[in-house]
Amino acid sequence: MTVIDNHEVLANDGDFRLSEASARDYFELLKPRVMSLVVFTAFAGLVLAPGHINPVLGLTAILCIAIGAGASGALNMWYDADIDAVMSRTAKRPIPAGRILPKEALAFGLVLSCFSVGILGLAVNWLSAFILAFTIFFYVVVYTMWLKRSTPQNIVIGGAAGAFPPMIGWACVTNSVTIESTVLFLIIFLWTPAHFWALALFKMRDYEAVGVPMLPNVSGERTTKHQIVAYAVLTAICAVLPTFLGFASVGYGVVAAALGAVFIYCSIAVWRMPGGDLKMIPAKKLFGFSIFYLFAVFSALLLDRLVAMLVSYAGGSF
């Protein structure tokens, strides 16, 4: 089987045919690791939002958001199949590996997109469904089809797609977009550049091979390191805003500040890293810690809300 481009796959006999993909291959199209982060942050937005939502509707909302995120991943893999085949970290994905045809991935992604948005709108509310639809559109069309291959700021602007889930979760409960949900959005939005540019530093050759203008390839390592530190500082500041806005406690603020200090420390270690360092150990450490950081911040927010609920419940029982 030979990959012709990112839209068709030609069989050896010259006829187009369906693949023999397994359920695992289709699951891989959903980008499950990315989906787990989307589900977690969306759940955080849903729990942190004031008010209540029926547990069944809440579960339905999270399921729809997860499916929408998976649909975005499938459509991203469909469009990026040509460059995925060249990059070492993506070459074994289902489409470049020949396990799924691009047209199958396209159909799969489109069906899941329509299903997730429609069910969320009918079951929960149409504001959250609209934000989910816009998130899918932004990730697939604005980021994948346009920004990714045209500007070194692709991650900065495109990062908005990954920042919407807590806002969607919040809207599922309140049917509104507020300053609080915007702060949750900003934490992820500002976190994204430092996270992905750390990856781009030790995957520069891959991005160069496929012509994707990531910041290290276009502006150099030095500029990238400066911006990583800047975004780490902005992320750390934004992460303590829930305390100042009153929807998280001082205890959360202390935890967020401590996590932010480590995040900044790791980014400074990258800034101090010698140019042309082939091992890129500080960059790899920052990339790994950045994932932990985001999960830890949102876990702290959830734990803070749980403690507040328990205190309120105990107070009301006396």
Give me some keywords for this one.
single chain; 318 residues; mainly alpha; Tetracycline Repressor, domain 2; Four Helix Bundle (Hemerythrin (Met), subunit A); two-stranded antiparallel sheet; 16 helices; 1% strand; flat; transmembrane helix; transmembrane; UbiA_sf
**How many domains, as an integer?**
2
Q: What is the spatial order of strands in the main beta sheet? A: 1-2
Q: What CATH architecture label of the largest domain applies?
A: Orthogonal Bundle
SS strand fraction: under 5%
Based on CA atoms alone, the radius of gyration comes out at 21 Å
The helix count comes to: 16
Q: What percent of residues adopt helix (DSSP H or I)? A: over 70%
What is the CA-CA span between the terminal residues?
A: 71 Å
For the largest beta-sheet, the strand count, sense and barrel status come to: 2 strands, antiparallel
Q: Please provide the ordered H/E string of secondary-structure elements.
A: EEHHHHHHHHHHHHHHHH
Helix-strand layout with pairing:
Blueprint (H helix, E strand, L loop, with lengths): L1 E2 L5 E2 L12 H7 L2 H17 L6 H25 L1 H4 L17 H22 L2 H21 L7 H5 L1 H4 L1 H10 L4 H24 L1 H7 L4 H5 L1 H19 L1 H5 L4 H22 L9 H36 L2
Pfam families: UbiA (PF01040)
Subcellular location: Cell membrane
Pathway: Porphyrin-containing compound metabolism; heme O biosynthesis; heme O from protoheme: step 1/1
